[in-house]
Amino acid sequence: MTIRTRFAPSPTGYLHIGGVRTALFNYLLAKQAGGQFLLRIDDTDQNRNVEAALQPILDGFKWLGLNWDEGPEVNGPFAPYFQSQRLEHYQAAVEKLLASGHAYFDFAKPEEIESQKEQAKKEGKAFIYDRAFMADTPEKRAAFEAEGRPFAVRLKMPRVGQCQFHDLVRGDCSFEWSDEQDHVVQRSDGTCLYHLASVVDDHDFQITHVVRAVEHLPNTARQIFIAESLGYVLPIFAHLPYVAEPGGTAKLSKRKLDKYLKQKDFAALCQMGDTIAQRANMQVSKETFNPVVVDFYRETGFLPGAVLNYLLLLGWSLDDSTEHFTLEDAVKHFSLARVNKAPASFDPQKLVAFQTRWMNNLDLKKKVAMVLPFLQKAGFVSEPAPCEMADRLGRIVQAAGDRIKVAGDILQFDELFATAESLAIDEETFQKRLAKDASAISALRDFREVLASAETFTHESLEPQLKQFVEERGIKLGTCINALRVAVTGKANGLGIFDYFEILGRAETLERIDRCLAKL
Fold first, then answer.
1. pLDDT at 44
2. In whole angstroms, how far apart are CA 201 and each of 80, 81, 196, 210?
3. Among 30, 259, 428, 470, which residue carries the largest CB count within 10 Å?
4. 481: Cβ–Cβ under 8 A, 6 or more apart, which residues?
5. What is the three-class DSSP state of 236?
6. Coil, strand or helix at 141
7. In angstroms, rounded to a whole number, what is the distance separating the alpha carbons of residues 333 and 26?
8. Burial bucket for residue 14 (CB in 10 Å: 0-12, 13-18, 19+)
9. In 454-496, where does DSSP find H-type helix?
10. How far apart are CA 520 and CA 516, in angstroms?
11. What is the mean pLDDT of the chain?
12. Burial state string for 379-390 with b = 16 or more CB within 10 A and e = fewer than 16
């Protein structure tokens, strides 16, 4: 059997990080067996669809490297892959269910259904529709239509026995048929609902494994009823634990951002993103630019491999020690048998730790390529970049080391892309570390001459000269370094001072010192 899996996002919102984890597991299961991973767009709810959300969903999967074998922009033998374009398939299924007696026309008005629900509530009973307005004969249908009643098509669910099936994550599952409602599968306007459409599509697309989040588990009985009523072979089911909110057990939600911002690690991740967005002149909104949505990671400069590595281990493990997985490694080792049933909490700090590790292991040229677009967005580097910029950027990235956790972090070193004329000097730092310290002013003036006459302008040659300089004058090393840092960078913190000397070069360094001294 060729394994075929699918991920079916609804374009009612942007790509949720929990959805990505589900898609990843589908991808891995299919690819490990040499099968196909499909992308289907479940857009039956036209009132809730967000036109602008579809492309970011597709772009998010492309960025992650979770390339689909069939679906939007790729097509395939079962096209179209949008539910809104497959209505005739669902209509045919409805007609088959009606003909076989597994569904019926229902002419109950909404207020009549509500009345039955209220009565059941008063009696302390579970609501079960009494089918009082079921038209199971042409005569009844004609009579109801003569009253001007609208109709829907409902499933005629069993009232006794159990629905039993085996789940690859949950084990043996059973649901009482008596707990199931006569679910609507077609509205009065002729449009069909998700449960019918999903079953029909899974059959038509030859999906062998339905791997989805556990919140869909209660839907499974009605979907099995639909499939068996239509004569379909059932797929194999696997219901994954959901991704839980930071430090909690409730499902991670895009609607609870204000709550999550009270958690320090989540707030820190958001602040990092906001800082990068501000420096890069990015127009962002909370709806799409937050750690619950995958776009956040692409736009701040995370590595897709690091994000996938972290998500892989949310609810799955190979053993007690292995943590680093490339996508290729994951394809090789993945197994649904090792998926944990319990929800796994989203941990922003751990995600950043994975990203930092991946970034530290990245080849220098690739790092430079990652940071360059952020510098161009911020206007620090022209587009196209000058040829000589690659070497300078390489030295900056190398000097920054693990300070660059994500590519957008390069923007914190804006002082390296300013001219001496445009360099902003923090006034509070200037006053505290230089202007109000006579010894610092003297050290800056005198060491400026050492820098001007130095035979070579490298870390190796300048560091011993600075040490000799402070020893001869009997001043603290920190006093001199702080004064130099203020003059050269305009900031209190940053890279090592000798890294700045080497990257800026003698002429630029001296010009910055001179401009700073002129402020005194």
1. 75
2. 10, 9, 9, 12
3. 30
4. 466, 497
5. strand
6. helix
7. 14
8. buried
9. 459-473, 477-489
10. 7
11. 94
12. ebbeeebeeebe
Q: How many residues does the chain have?
A: 520
What is the mean pLDDT of the segment spanning 273-286? Answer: 93
Q: What is residue 302's predicted lDDT score, i.e. its pLDDT?
A: 98
228, amino acid identity: E
Q: Lay out the sheet containing 171-176: strands in order across.
A: 171-176, 162-167, 236-240, 209-213
Q: Name the active-site residue from 62, 254, 256, 286.
A: 254
For the beta carbon of residue 252, count every other beta carbon within 10 angstroms: 23
Nearest to 3 by CA among 36, 38, 25, 40: 36
- Find the mean pLDDT for residues 413-420: 95
Residue at token pair 């039993």: 164
Q: E strands within 99-221?
A: 103-106, 134-135, 152-155, 162-167, 171-176, 184-186, 209-213
- Four-CA torsion 193, 199, 200, 206, nearest 10 degrees: 150
- What's the CA gap between 170 and 200, in Å, rounded? 24
Residue 102 predicted with pLDDT over 90: yes
| Residue 264 designated active-site | no
- One-letter amino acid for residue 431 of the chain: Q
Place of tokens 């197994």: 335
Within 8 A by CB and 6+ apart from 373, the residues are 407
Which of 290, 278, 276 has its CA nearest to residue 16? 290
User: Beta-carbon neighbour count of residue 117 at 10 Å?
Assistant: 12
C-alpha dist (Å) from residue 309 to 55, 284, 371: 24, 26, 21
- Name the DSSP letter for residue 289: S
Of 386 and 367, the structure prediction assigns the larger pLDDT to 367
User: Is 14 in contact with 287 (CB distance < 8 Å)?
Assistant: yes
